[in-house]
Design brief:
355 residues; 4-stranded antiparallel sheet; 40% helix; binds pyridoxal-5'-phosphate
Length: 355
């Protein structure tokens, strides 16, 4: 049976401080105005000027030849696999990768590929680990087609891959004849945190995408970038999967607005994450992972309360976090102010400190 997220108890108050996910932001007034003013056409027919504007901007930002607008980040990952791989191929990725654990088995179901899961600290792996995973090209081994990295690594704690480490794993993959794909769901968080432009982060990658529904605050949309040939092939899969849209410019305008107005402010989210982490680390028994970006992961069991209990109690105070396999994730975004972080921290302190 498929797990449906549990509803909050009937007596739970409305959520006042939403630290559950950076996907739950609401469009700002400025973004809505940009959407209202968008010029639109038939995207499926290559005729929507606002989609073209977004794709041109994204191809330039990522340093790639072309780009395609898609409804979601998951579709970007799935289409990249469909284009880069054939059935029977193997993808090398981290064991916590979104493509492995959170896309409903799409890569196996729709492309018949297997994923070799690498170990590594904070959702990242080393060039040595990639080298060790490269199989001899015999008729016994699965053909290895693609190396995939997540920048930032979500379950790795929003960790930022250092540029040198990206270059090093890409070099090993290239040497072994693999294509390279970057899941850039939160790429702009990495760029802002490291002070490195997106085109440099993505330089060694054949394909890369950015999600507009994470810290950038748009209601939907992601853009997949690559060579002209890659994007041409991606368009065929977009059509096959039902991802071709009509007056999508309304949504593309929100994405363009977010690129113009919501990138630099990601630094505020990172500062809020550091503030929450610093406060939590003062509480005896709480183990906090040092945040690189907007995600704060911590473990409350040492303070005598399980993650599930902790999040349920916070929810009854109108504060929402997520509990992921024992770890708590608190996520900073557009709708979380510095004052809200203070208030959330105070509530957490009360729950976690001995009476
Ligand atoms: C690292 C990563 N990749 C991919 C996705 C999928 O993005 P979407 O929800 O837009 O399909 C997510 C969503 O949380 C993510 O965190």
């Amino acid at each position: 049976m498929v797990h449906i997220p549990e509803r909050p108890p009937a007596n739970a108050p409305a959520v006042r401080i939403n630290l559950y996910s950076d996907t739950q932001t609401r469009p700002t007034a400025g973004m809505k105005a940009a959407m209202m003013a968008a010029e639109v056409g038939d995207e499926q027919h290559g005729d929507d000027p606002s989609v073209h504007e977004l794709c041109d901007k994204m191809a330039k930002l990522m340093g790639k030849e072309a780009a395609v607008f898609l409804p979601s980040g998951t579709m970007c990952n799935v289409i990249a696999t469909l284009v880069h791989c054939v059935p029977g191929d193997e993808i090398i990725a981290h064991k916590t990768a979104h493509i492995l654990g959170s896309e409903g088995g799409a890569h196996a179901a729709l492309r018949g590929v297997q994923i070799r899961a690498l170990e590594g600290e904070r959702g990242m792996f080393t060039p040595e680990a990639v080298k060790a995973a490269i199989l001899p090209k015999t008729r016994h081994a699965p053909p290895q087609a693609l190396l995939e990295v997540e920048q930032t690594a979500n379950i790795g704690g929003g960790a930022v891959w250092p540029k040198e480490q990206l270059d090093a794993v890409v070099a090993v993959a290239r040497e072994a004849g693999l294509a390279t794909h970057m899941d850039g769901a939160r790429l702009m968080n990495a760029c802002v945190a490291a002070g490195i432009p997106a085109h440099e982060m993505a330089a060694g990658f054949d394909s890369v995408w950015l999600d507009f529904t994470k810290g950038l605050g748009a209601p939907l949309g992601a853009v997949l970038c690559g060579s002209h040939d890659f994007i041409e092939k991606s368009w065929r899969w977009k059509q096959r999967l039902g991802g071709s849209m009509r007056q999508a410019g309304i949504c593309a305008a929100a994405c363009t607005y977010s690129l113009d107005h919501h990138v630099e402010r990601l630094a505020d989210d990172h500062a809020n994450a550091r503030k929450l982490a610093a406060g939590l680390s003062q509480i005896p028994g709480v183990v906090v992972e040092k945040p690189d970006t907007n995600l704060v992961f911590f473990d409350t069991t040492g303070a005598g309360i399980t993650g599930a209990e902790f999040s349920a109690k916070l929810r009854m105070q109108g504060i929402q976090v997520s509990s992921l396999g024992g770890r708590i994730r608190a996520c900073m975004h557009l709708d979380v102010t510095s004052e809200m972080v203070d208030e959330a921290l105070e509530a957490m302190r009360k729950l976690l400190s001995p009476k």
